[in-house]
Amino acid sequence: MRILLSIPNLMLGGAERQFAELAAGLATRGHKVMAVALGQAGPLEAALGQAELVTLNKLGRWDNLRVALRLAGLLHSFRPQIHYAFLPTPCVLGALVRPVTPYSRLVMGMRSTNVNAGAYAHGQAGSWLQSMEARLSFLADLFIVNSNAGLRDCLARGFSRTLGVVVPNGIDTVRCRSDRGLGAALRKAWGIGPDEQLIGLVARLDPMKDHPNFLRAAALLNAKCPKTRFVCVGAGPEDYTAELHRQVEELGLPGRIVWAGGYTDMPAVYNALDALCLSSAFGEGFPNVLGEAMACGVPCCTTDVGDAALVLGSTGKVVPKGDPKSLAAGLEELLERLDREGQGLRAACRERIVMNYGVQRMIETTEGLLVGLCGKVRP
Questions:
Q1: Backbone angles phi, psi at 77, to 5 degrees
Q2: Per-residue pLDDT tens for 13-62?
Q3: How many CB atoms are located within 10 Å of the residue 1 CB?
Q4: pLDDT tens digits for 238-249?
Q5: Is the residue at 202 inside a domain?
Q6: Within-domain flag for 350
Q7: d(Cα 215, Cα 54) in Å, to the nearest integer?
Q8: Does residue 165 sit in the same domain as residue 192?
Q9: Domain region containing 336
């Protein structure tokens, strides 16, 4: 097959990682793959393998017309059988150019659930984009969601049930593996003592991830368990970062929380942790961070977002959203369980991902859907 995959950029993120893994995997399996970043590429460019990368250098919302024309031109010249668009902007642009590219089947890739556009400065534009995505979904031949929660959200927004299918994210369990030695240097660099338990929140600094919930829970837990330490791995806007730092001061947590910034060597980060926390308030479908941490043998406590509970199974703890007391109690319970079960719990976490969410399963399932779509007679 000739496949064009489009995405806003290739910066570090769960959807971007899945995009790169899929592009590389399909190319390795003999397909001709073009990966199109509407804006710049980013750190994940190196993960594309044999897929061809094209960047359209989108300058902002007002540059969408030029980018749409460039995308249509690529579709005309490359003539893919499949255009698989990841995330709202590529989905909307893909649908808008669909009438002039009838030789390509359009697949919309839905990665988020119940996004609260009002939490962002450009919330009105985000709401409009979500609305357009749903209104134009009739132009798609298929939409793929990465979670059952995401499918329910799409159906509620007006997508056709007959065109939707769930393909869970795939975790590279070779790259993400349990090796505590990988994280030893980071623990030392972060000043974590050998008798301290380190809980990590690995997420960009974004309202969706609800860092304030994590910080309040950290303060509650630290008051009861003074040997706990915390690390936030991820970057974000300067003003939001400054606000989070102010909250740390107000909660009396300086010295207990490490602000690590962004990292590319995620297996080392996960292996530095004793437990991982996901404190998100909305927007999650299949949280990659849970699967990657578990593949590294790290147990997780998460808020009840997307398919998080399904990913964890019986290996972790799920708590309500936006409730720091419940989150602190859940983290405490998870650490106590880790003390009791030790390596057995770590092994169970990894086994669940290896058995159910390997990256090759995601690639092969997606390939089968795309092959089947090429063979269908267009209605």
A1: -80, -40
A2: 899 999 999 999 999 999 999 999 999 899 999 999 999 999 999 988 78
A3: 16
A4: 999 999 999 999
A5: yes
A6: yes
A7: 40
A8: no
A9: 180-356
